Amino acid sequence: MNKQLPIAILGILAVIAVLVLWPKATQLPQEETTLIPDGFVIPSLNATQKLGQSNFNKSCASCHGDYGLGSANGPPLMHRIYEPNHHGDGAFFLAALNGVRAHHWKFGDMPPVDGITETEIAPIVAYVRALQQANGVF
Ligand code: HEC
To answer: Which residue has the higher pLDDT, 31 or 71?
Structure first.
């Protein structure tokens, strides 16, 4: 038998697998994407704020949602409660480093964010403040 035939069949199977699985793989994250409310403004971000966005997505968005809009696991940070005069920047460092005992919401305690450093938190604060500012949260 032609030695190349099995290779060709494998190749075709691989292509079919990719065609079948690819759309599923790309659809999955969409189901978990936070619903962005109408009129929510995503401002253009400077370099620090962009770094903050990527740190936020890694360490905070699983609970506080994309763009800090909240999720089933944690409250929105785009909320009057978290304006700078209610929760200053220091509250963000303390929350991430030490965790938070539930007091405003019914999501339970926020655990300390494992392994996060002040250097990683600072741009997160800049990012959250930029989003808050763009949306009149303060
Ligand atoms: C496992 C879920 C979870 C993760 C991950 C998480 N948070 Fe929270 N966070 C919460 C919950 C729940 C609360 C609300 C507690 C309450 O009821 O007031 C909260 C509250 C806060 C508060 C308010 C603190 C206060 O003094 O009231 C800040 C600020 C905050 N989170 C920032 C962050 C930042 C920044 C990150 C990422 C570095 C992060 N959180 C990651 C769940 C989480």
So the answer is: 71
> What tokens appear for 10 in the block?
């494998």
Task: With CA atoms as reference, report the closest residue to 98 among 86, 110, 80.
Answer: 110
Q: How many CB atoms lie within 10 A of CB 129?
A: 20
The pLDDT tens digits of the residues spanning 5-35 come to 777 777 766 665 656 666 555 554 444 566 7
Residue 33 is predicted with a pLDDT of 60
- Which residue has a Cα nearest atom 16 of ligand 1? 102
CA of 102 to the centre of ligand 1 (A): 9
**CB of 128 closer than 8 Å to CB of 77:** yes
**Best of 51, 97, 110 to mutate for ligand 1, by most ligand atoms within 8 A of CB?**
110
